[in-house]
């Protein structure tokens, strides 16, 4: 067969053409196309998944934002309707009244008379700060009575030297600031009348009193003279009680008896201060105990000189902290209920328990930053100062 | 050259479709990548913005919540204080007089004349009632009275103390001005000033003028 084939006639229509390169290229392109298309499909699916999550998140955020804005708008409307400025004015007024109520005249008298040398007596004592507070309801000052009280003292002195000694002592006492002897004049009976203005710092006076109350007086009677000598020892609970009984010169008036009525009894047995000259007890009166330090120990009302947060449970601390957050300037608030509760927690005669004094003031004026905030953000509600409960006194 | 060109042109139906498909797929992939990049960035920005907005809105809401809570707490405490301490005059006035007289007696003082000047604080819905009186006694009596007053649960403040030494060592003449507040009753009339004695009323004068 094969020997004769080449002699057979060539009957093909066209000459042979090699198409394999074209077909290889086409096949390669198809393969690449499939790969690229698959890659594209995979990528688009992946992107859809990823962006889908983002879009859902975006949608959620938009909804949450709209919701928060709607609620904020409602609250803002509510706050506008509440008329915060008027409420603040009222609260500030009440706070000043609470500060006045918490102001201890006894401690003031004790502090002033302790600084009075012999020969100087008081005629009038008026805290100007209260008056100013009453005059201006819009006055923004915080708790005038518990921070700084402008006092005006009118009195008389037997001699100039005694008066000057009094002024010097006021300068030295940290419970007083800026003593200003504004006038002195000699009367016909050679007594010197004077007017004096001084700033009284009740908090510092309270701290001093608290510090002093840590040391109680033990009195010992000297057989020879029959007189008593005050000496200070820590931890003795006798305080002025013994003084009232034993030592007329050092009895120190009302504080000599425990309790209110006892104060009266002590006072009656205290000729050193009952001779009619207001604080002529002078130096002797230094040994006298403040009724707050003596008699008040039996009561539930402290002197308010200490840290108000001592001895709090974590819950109470947290509540105070939450409230402190509200007011800038580290304002600590306690509700009346808190005050009552806290007041009972502190040991009598110790710290706090005192409505107004236990309060770290600071009127949360909002936004210390440069950008002023609009109402109602620029008006923080002034918190009412804690005040002792109905069960207790004003202090 | 012509022959090769003609060869490829004559077989265009073989290689052109896959080439076009490949080019289209490549173009799609490239545009997808670029689109994703752009859209991703846009989405990212939008998300960040939305997060910021949401954070701000939530912070504003929180602040307002706190403000509202603080305002409500203050209102509640104020109302409590008003009801507990500043109850109406009809409910407390005579009790206060009794209490002050009792405290003075316990302290060894005997107020014989007491003035009760009144001042209306209309914008606050309060009435200030003062108790102005003069007593004679010792310094210790005064201290005891102040002490008892400080312990009293009533909301009475000491506004003014004036002390004068009596001649002949008879003790001190003490002029005191105390005051308290009453919640205005709805039907309260115009302000009035009541004093049981002219002396007491005049003694109240300076204090009032400072008010």
Provide a descriptive summary of the structure in words.
The complex is a heterodimer of chains A (about 400) and B (about 210). Chain A is built from twelve helices and six strands. By secondary structure, chain A is of the alpha+beta class. A four-stranded antiparallel beta sheet of chain A has the order 1-2-4-3. In chain A, strands 5-6 form a two-stranded antiparallel ribbon. Chain A is rod-shaped, with a radius of gyration of 42 Å. Helix content of chain B is about 60%, strand content about 20%. In chain B, helix 3 (about 90-105) packs antiparallel against helix 4 (about 140-150). In chain B, strands 1, 2, 3, 4, 5 and 6 form a six-stranded antiparallel beta sheet that branches. Chain B is built from five helices and six strands; from the N terminus they run H-H-H-E-E-E-H-E-E-E-H. Chains A and B meet through helix 2, helix 3, helix 4, strand 1 and helix 5 of A and helix 2, helix 4 and strand 4 of B.
Layout of helices and strands:
The complex is a heterodimer of chains A (395) and B (211).
Chain A: H1 2-5, H2 20-82, H3 84-102, H4 105-114, E1 120-127, H5 128-135, H6 144-147, E2 149-157, H7 160-172, E3 176-186, E4 192-200, H8 202-214, E5 215-221, E6 228-234, H9 239-246, H10 260-268, H11 314-326, H12 336-345
Antiparallel strand pairs in A: 1-2, 2-4, 3-4, 5-6
Chain B: H1 2-10, H2 12-85, H3 89-106, E1 114-116, E2 118-121, E3 126-137, H4 139-151, E4 157-165, E5 172-183, E6 194-195, H5 198-210
Antiparallel strand pairs in B: 1-3, 1-6, 2-3, 3-5, 4-5
Helix pairs in contact in B: 3-4
